[in-house]
Structures are given as C-alpha cells and as structure tokens.
Amino acid sequence: MPTHDLRRPFKRPAISDQQKRRELSLLRQEQNRREAQLQARRLASTVLSLQSGTSEPEPSDPIEVEIPHELDPESEEPYDADCSPRDITDVRQASKLRGIEGRRWFARQLMLPEWMIDVPDNLTKDWYVLARPAGKRCFVVSSNGTTVSRLRNGSVFHHFPSALPSGARTRENCGSALSYCILDCIYHNIDQTYYVIDMVCWQGYSLYDCSAEFRFFWLNSKLAESGACEPPTHYHRYRFSMVPVYNCDKSGLLMAYTGAVPFVKDGLLFYNKHAHYQTGNTPLTLVWKDEKCSQYLIDTDSKGEIPSEQQVVLGLQNDGKLTTSDDPPVVFGCLDEEFIEKSGLRCGNLLRFAIGGGGLTFADGKLEKADIQYVGKSNRVRAFADSYSKVIFQYMARRTPLRVVDLLASISLPNDQEDRTSDAEMDG
Amino acid sequence: MALILKNPRDYPLEQLYGKIMMFQINMTSEITQILLNAQSVDGTVRKHAEESLKQFQDQNLPSFLLSLSGELVNEEKPVDSRKLAGLVLKNALDAKEQHRKYELVERWLSLDVGVKNRIKTCLLQTLSSPVHDARSTASQVIAKVAGIELPQQQWPELIGSLLLSIHQLPPHIKQVTLEALGYICEEVPPDVLDQDQVNKILTAVVQGMNASESNNDVRLAAAHALYNALSFAQANFNNDTERDYIMRVICEATLSPDMKIRQAAFECLVAISSTYYEKLAPYITDIFSITAKAVREDEEPVALQAIEFWSSICDEEIDILEEYGGNFTGDSDVPCFYFIKQALPALVPMLLETLLKQEEDQDQDEGAWNLAMAGGTCLGLVARTVGDDIVPPVMPFIEENITKPNWRQREAATYAFGSILEGPSPGKLTSIVNVALNFMLTALTNDPNSHVKDTTAWTLGRIFEFLHGSAMETTIITQANCQQIVTVLLQSMKDAPNVAEKACGALYFLAQGYEDVDSSWPLTPYFQEIVQALLTITRREDAGDSRLQTAAYETLNEVVRCSTDEIASMVSQLIPVITMELHQTLEVQKLLSDEREKQYKLQGLLCGCLQVIIQKLGSEPTRYVVMQYADQIMGLFQRVFACRSATAHEEAMLAIGALAYVMGPDFAKFMPEFYKYLEMGLQNFEEYQVCAVTIGVVGDLCGALEDKILPFCDGIMTLLLKDLSSNQLHKSVKPPIFSCFGDIALAIGDNFDKYLMYAMPMLQSAADLSAHTSAADDEMAEYTNLLRNGILESYSGILQGFKNSPKTQLLIPYAPHILQFVDSIYLEKDMDDVVMKTAIGVLGDLADTLGSNASNLIRKSLSSREFLNECLSSHDHFIKESAEWARLALTVAFGHGASGYCQCFGNQWQPLLETNPTVERRKNYSATS
Predict the structure, then answer these.
(1) What is the pTM of this model?
(2) What ipTM goes with this model?
(3) Of A295, B165, B507, B661, which sits with the fewest C-beta atoms within 10 Å of its C-beta?
(4) Which fold has domain A311-403?
(5) What is the rounded CA–CA span in Å between residue B852 and residue B847?
(6) Which GO terms describe its biological process (chain A) (predicted)?
C-alpha cells in the first residue's frame, strides 16, 4: 500500500497566477452578465411616452416669468408635436438633444397637476397630501457623472455634480452608464435646495408605471440612502430634500396645511395613491391653495402685481378657436380671420386675454360662455396655454374660493361613496 | 491465435456456440503466452500481444474475464502472467475518467451472474495462493468488484467469508486478507457497510495491528487497513472503551521496531487528527510525547508523519477558529480545544530544532521534502493558529542564530522569521519588521550562502504580503526605503535561479501592496527598470528549466495589474514587446518534444501577459492603443491555437475574451476566422479547462457583439447542447453552459426562439435534478447551487431577451415550470446567496416580460411573497438589488388593471409613509439648521 503524500506547498503563494487570470476573467464575465441583465431589465420599462398634447396648467409664478433664456427665433414658431424626434425612447438619448429639441422633449415629461376646482371623493382613502414648496418646478436628471435640472419649459436651469446615482464623477458614484435618475423637484431658492416631490426613475429603473404609493415609498427609502440629502460638498452642489407626505385624513391635511416646514409654502399637492406617473395634465394629481398657505393665490403679472382683471393664456387654433392646453382642449372663444390677419397672428400662438365683466357662464358643470378680451401675445418663455382647471381655479379664487374648511368638511363626511362602489361591484 | 471471429450475428446459433467454445479453448491455452508477450522487451511483440488482448476483450468479454481469472488462480502458471492477468482484470473494472468508470461498472453489472460468480470464486481462491504477487493482486481486484457490487447490495457474503476463521489463517494469508479489507474500505463509501460488518472488520484489523501479533507483515497490513477503515469507525470512536483500545494499539504501534509499522501508525494518527479531532483531548499529551520523540530520534519518513500530525491539528483549529470569527457566540459545530496553544511551549522548540536540519541542495530540487521544510511549514501553521502568541517563543531563536557564521543557523533563523509573519497582528510585528527589513536587504545582497539568500528573499516577500498594503495602519515601506528595496530585488534577479525566483515573488507582493493607492503610484519611477529586469530574466538561459521564467511573467503581470493610469502609456509600450516575443516562439521550428513543451509553456505565459495588459488598458481612453494592435494580436493567437497545446490554447482563449470585451462590436471582423477555434474549444472534452474557458469567451462575445453574434449562434448552440448531453465532459463545465444560454438570448433577443425547443427541455430536466440537494456532502451541495445559478441565469437571459417582442407568448408555456423551480428551491432552504439573488431576479423577469400572464401564476405560487420579503430584508447588497427590481416588476405587473396587488406586495411600504408627523417635521428642521 502506498504511503500518503504529505508534501505541502513550500515557499509558494497558494494561488497560481494562471488561476488568478482565470478567476479575474470569470469575474469580468460575471460583472458583464450582471450589467447586461440590469440593462435589459431597465431598458424595457424606461420607455418614456411621447404623447402629443400641449398643456400648461400651473400658475405663472412671478419668479418664473423673469427666467433668463437664450433667444431662439424658433421658440416663436408654432409648436407642432409631430416635429419632435420620435425615436427617442429614454432619457439617455434625450439628454444628448441640444437646444430647442432638448427643451421641447423635456418640456413634455413632467406630470402636471390640475387645479382643484372641486373636492374629489374618497380623499381620506385614496389620496396623499403634501405642502408644495414655492419655487421652480424642475425635472432633475442625473446620468453619466453629471446632473442637469430643467425647468418646466425644458430649458436647462442648473448643471451640477450631485450625490444622486451617476450624478457626479467620483469613484464611489461612477456607477454604470445605465444608472441614471429622474426626479420631479421644486427648487427652493432661499435654502438652495431641491425638494423632491416625485421620483420618476431611480438608477435606471423606471417608476412611470408604478403607483404614487410605491413611488413615494421608493423615494423615501432611496433618496436618503444615496447621500443626496446631505449638505453640499464639492461633488454635491445642491442639497436634495424630501417633503413630508401625509395620508389625506383630517390630521394629515392639517399637518400639511399648518405644519411648519423649512420652506416657503405654495399651496398643497394632492396625489391619488393608485395613479401612475403620467406626463402632461392629470386630474389624479391636484394642486390647491388659499392665501394662508401661499403668497401667490391670485396670479400676478410680470411686474408682480395683481391685474384688476383675470388674465388667461389660450392657444390659437387653425379655425381661429381659442383653447386651453387640456386634452381634449376646452374652447373659450373664437377669433375672426380678419382680426388674426390684422394682428399678425399665426396658428399655434399663445395669446393673452383678460376676463371681462361678463365673466364665465356655466351650464351642467361645463363652460358655456366666456367674456374674454385680447391683450396681446404671451411671453415667449411660455410653452403651453393655461389649462381649464387653472382658469377656473383663478376665477373662483377671485369670487368664491374653495376653502380649507370645505376640504375638511368633505373628509369628515360619512363616506358613503365607498359603500356605493362596493354595492355596484356586487351587482355586477 | 489467428482466429478472428466475425460478427456473431453472421452465424447460426449452434455454429456460434461451437465457435465460441473453440475460441475460448484457443484463447485459454494461449492467454498465458499473450500475457507474457505483453510484458516483452520487444516492442513489436508487446504491441501485437496488447492488440490480441483488446480484440479478445471486444469480441467476448465474459470469456475474456473468465480466462483472466482462471489464469490468476492457476498455480501452474508463471507468476508474471498471473500478475498481469489480475491487473488487466482490475482495469476492466475501473478507470480514472469518470464516464469510463461508469461504463465499466454498468458493463460488470450486466454480466451473467454465473460468469461473475465463477470469477469471484477464482479471486477468493487466489487469496490463499503461496505466490505473493498472485494473492496480492487478487486482493486488489476483489476490492474493485466489491466497490461495484456492495453498493448494489450484491456479494453480501464477501466480508463474512474474508473474516471467517481469520485467526486460524497462516500469516501470509492473514496478511493478504487484511490488505483486501483495507482496499475494500478504500473503495466503498462508508454508508454501504452496516455497523455489524464494520465492527467485525475493525476487530480483525485492530487485533492484527496489536503488539501481540508477532508477524510484522501482518501487523503492517493491519495498520494500512486501519488507515482506510477509520472513516467507517464513527460509532466506535463514540464509544470510550473501543476508542481507548484503538488509540492504545495505534500508539503502541508507533513504538514498533519496524520502521514501516511506525510510519503507518503515525499515518493513522494523522487521519484521526482530522476525522476525530474532537475525540483527541484525552490522548493529546501522550501523542505529543510520541511525536516529539519521533521528530527528534526517528528516521525521516516517520518524523515527517509526526510533524504532519501537528500540521493537521493546526488545519483543524484554523478552520474552527475561522468559523468562530464569523460567529461571536463561538457556537460552532466542533469546539476548539486549543491543543496548539497548550502545546506551544514544547511544540515550538521541537519545530525550531528541525529547521537546522536542512539539506544542502533542497532549493534546487523541485520534489524535495524534508524535516526542515516540514518543520518550517508546521511553524507557519502554528503561527496562523495562535497569532501573537507565536512571537515571544520564536524571537530568541531568531536573534541568537541570524548572525551566526554557520549558514544553517542563519537560514533557520530567517526561515523561522518568514514563517511566523502570517498570523500575528501587524501591531505585534511592525516594530520587529522595521528593524529586520534593513538586515534582510543587506543579507540578500551580501550573504555568501545561496540558501540563506533564497530564504531571505522569500521572507521579504512574506513581509510585503502580510504587512504592506493600503489596509495597513502603519506602513513599513517609505519613499526612502522603497528605492533601496527595488534596487536590492532587481539586483537579486541576477542571482541563482532559485534566489531570483524568490526575488520576483517579493516584487510581486511589493506591487500588490500598491494596488488601490490614491495618490501617485510609488513604483512609477522604477517601472521601466522593473520591466527591463523582468524581461531580462525571461531571456535567461537557465530560466526555462526552473520556475523562474513563470515567476518573472507572474510578477510582470502583477506589476501591470496594480499600476495606475498615470503610467498607461508605459504599459502600452509593452504590447509590441510581448507580441514580438510571442512571434519569435512561433517562428522556431522542429523542436524536440521536451523543448516543444517548454515552448508551449512560454507561449502560454506570453498570452497570459497580453491578457493582463489588454485588460489593464481596456477602458477609455487607452483602449484605442489595444485596438491598434488587435489585428496583430489576433493573428498570433490563431497561430497559437494551431499548435494545439492545451495550456497555451487556454491562455490565448482567455486573452481573446479580454480583447473582445475591449473591442466590443468591432471584434466582429475576427469572427469568421476565429470561429473555428471557438468550435475547437467547445469540443475539447478532455482538456475541460479549455472548454470551460471557451464557454466564458462565448459570454464575452455575446456582450461585445450583441446581435452581430447571430450568424454564429446555430453552430455555438449546437455545440453547447452537445456539451451538455455529454457524460464525458467534466461536470463543472455544465453550469456555465446554462449561463451562456442566457448570455446568447440577451444578445440575440427573440431570435433565440428557434433554440427554445432544445434548450428548454434541457433546462427543465436540469432544474428538476437540482431542485433538491439530496446529497449531504458540502461539495455536492455547492455544485447543486452552481447548477441552479446557471439555470436561473439562463432563464433570466431568455426572459429578458424576449421582452417587448411579439414572440413573448412562446415563453408562456414554460412559465409555470420556472415558477415551480423557484418555489421549490426556496422551500428547500439550502440555496446560497448567489442563487438567492438570481432566483428573485427571475421572479421579477417573469413578471416583467410576461406581465399579467405571469402575475396570475405568481399570485397563486406558494412562496413568492415570502421569498420576496426575505430577499428584501437581506443584508446582501446584490440580493437586495435584485429583490427591489423584482418588487418593481411585480408592482407593475400586478398594478395593470388590478388593485388587488396591495394584498400581495403593497403592505410593506404602507407603514413607512405613516410616519409620525412630529418626527417627520423635526427631521426636516434639523436638516435645514
């Protein structure tokens, strides 16, 4: 019987260099596989919608009107959704767009809340409420080692390094080219902070198709983890911060309405818990304000003064109709050809009108008649006409505003709506 | 023996019978001569005889085996033909290659029972032959038959018949019977024998080994048999009386006057140290005395075993303590008895003495293993076991001897120092090393003895390996001494091959310690000089015969690997140098086979070096330098493939994988030419490392070429499917093949549809096999998890590849099985972290690609929700990442048209949103202030 070999490695490293090369190759292949999987997993769900439809429902907040922007003759031209590059499927491609194309593309990626002109059912059960910081609404994109914020009209606001994934060129944060992020923010100038009000993409994973409930959860757990909420440093130019989100019950609504926050409030935002992130106007996200929670209840003009008559911006259509940015558009009136020609107006122009003494007349909850008087062309920074809800909210604000007590009252109502729904389901 | 049988089917039955009978008679009468001819010195005669044997075997196996056993048992036949008959018989029962072994087992089992019984009878009868070689061969064949039959519950009477009246047998038969028992224990797995049989075997064996056995051959055979039988003795070692008895007999045998018996007894102790570590406490003091005496006084083979006992105890305690390390409660399966720590005061002096017993030329002899080497190795293990405690008892020895005029003392002191550098904390060693470093550098330059220089260079390497690097709190290498170190090491590279090799090793670890430096790279000023010195070594006349050449390239590779971007341009200058070297090896023609092997080895090293450089320069902006040389490099690699050397082939393949990764889609231009070598690699079953590496390269190509790989996929898929169904291919290659399916599907998307009907059934049956790890042993469990991971990666790739395609519906029929697979491995609760990560990802991929088609299935699945929750709360980053992806995908899949998803996955985030408003507010305040 042979004796058993008991030689041990002597004065040798335990692993041969060849073995090391094999292992390093395997490691590379594993990493590539992981990258490829991540890429596949991300790509499919990151297709951003390119729906046409022009809208602009937000209040013209006074700061925004003064935004410096490069003068681009094209911006005066009629806006045609069809001319935007159609083959763009995700934000990485879009981020390569320059000038007007980039602006146009990004201008239509934000979810735009409607104004609350009546109180939705089931506020308590189906809605969140949060205090809206005053400031510039921005779309913040971090990718490829840099972060860019774009305003509502698509123009670049800040270009900066951040601690968001892929938001800066640092060793820890280089990440892969795929791990970009898109945040829906409001830039609050006083403390130079981006308040994140929604999360659209995180590390390449799209959250478009996720409910608000899930997006807020994700925002809550991810943002702080990334270090983006830390104070600014060389590689992190601006601080990001979250806004407390409450269930829209009585105490939640009061917290959002009266609770102290580190920013200047500009009204309240309401999110339907089940709604996905939808670009453009949506009735599933609402904005509401009164003079207590906002300095800008009634729209101001470019000088910051409240005009004596309510101003509205409407889009001029082919047939001379004046419409809102809604889809389908709401018609407020019609210009005759002679006037259009005389004033040198073209289809697609955004025109400013004042609501005259005749006001708006409604029938069955729909606009029947509007007394509007032509003021002039709108500021060229504008990308969209006003939305119907915005016009109505402003109209009501000057006459019979929706008050916080109305909201609270609707919450404390016995909720028979729910019962009715389930009855209906059982019948079906 | 001229008779050649035609195909039996050509003859009517009676005729066939007659032919076979005649054939048998002819063969039987001639087999003796054939067997003798097969051992002839005349090559032609030998070859003819071997062919005849093969023919006989192929044409009539039962008759062939019967003839062999008949030859073996026949006392009238010459001993040489009997012995070879036994060996041929043995080879007809077992082979080294797994698939061949399996075939032979099946073949034996399917033989006629009558034939088998006749053979077995002959074998047992041969055991009592007066001819030693005959009975000894028979004992080995019996073990082979037992290895096949006992696990099948056949030949149940074997053990009983061997042990029957063993006490009355004459010594020579007793000896061979014990040998047979030993071989049987070596062949059959422990669970095959019942405890009663084990008891009987152990009784016979231990009695045979007892001091009362007067015949030394019997005693030795018993000791060897005990060595093999130990793994069966679990129950007996749990019984105090029986264990005491076995241990007493073994310890007594270590004192036998016969050296071989003493050696065999120590071998038993070594085996017990690892198998029954936790039973050793009562005996350890006695064993120490016995081993110490053997180490100091006995002959070397015995002394080496005695040292090995302590090395083996160290192995055990290192393992146990490592397990403790990850588990602060000390709640390990096996408790640590700290034998080494307790024996330290006596053990260390004993080992230090051995260090002085060096052999003059041990450094030149690759196969050397002596007392000094074993003692030093053991000292190193002791240091790893006890840590800081090793330093005080060793330091006086070092201080006393390191300056002595006798080279043995200087070398022993240096070796002791080098040995204890791994184990103690850097805090304990740093101050000592700071003093020693300068001394070592001087010794490496000035010591007149090559042996001392060898050990000194090795010790410097150990210093850099364990006490130098960015993880260290205090650095032992400063800007000031770095230059001195490099100068001394480069100088030593001109020394004797063994010294130069160790100097390369030291430089290797010096460079490794500078991996991940943030500031400027400390070796930058010396880079050119280092590269020159290493390349000079590779061209040394005497480099190819030793490990020196390999060491030089390994060091060059490590220096390149650890270098920083600031010297990328200098690294890129290496490409033309190394390609030129490779070119030259390919130009040399017509070498002797010995020289050709050396040439292949060198080609392998050069390909390896190119691989490292390509990988280093692979990222922007230096990748363009690599691209520049790509044509030239590929041309050389293809010439390397044409040489058909496995090592060089594997290295070139690895390098091509790296090149494809760097080039991306541009690699497509090489594919038409390269494809045939890819095919060649995928069909290389024998050198399975080549096959494995090639499969990895297919993965690289998928990533690089994406859909440009499509034209080659038919061929690749065919070969991969063949590889999978081959039982010749080493099993370790199979999991990566599955992963490779996934890579291909990701690359070519829904073009994978035509492979679904082949790949899916393979995946399903492999999934069924790997769903349950019936095996208790760790190795099998590990393999099962590798297989699972491969299968899951394949599913992931296929699902993602088909996403957003109209052909997605083709996958729907497979979804239930995939889900079932994930379910079942979750319920098994034995998957590792990697499998967990991949499995939860597959769950997400199912939902992502199949949407509502999958969500309904997932809703019904037993464990998906639980599994997801478990993964979400995992501490493993990758599991968490995958789980979050899965949650996202499931949320989307469930969210579409259904609000009921909240019941499934919605509950976990609900509480997070309902944070106490006061807390929330406070948090916001503190963030601003």
Answers:
(1) 0.75
(2) 0.75
(3) B165
(4) OB fold (Dihydrolipoamide Acetyltransferase, E2P) (2.40.50)
(5) 7
(6) snRNA import into nucleus
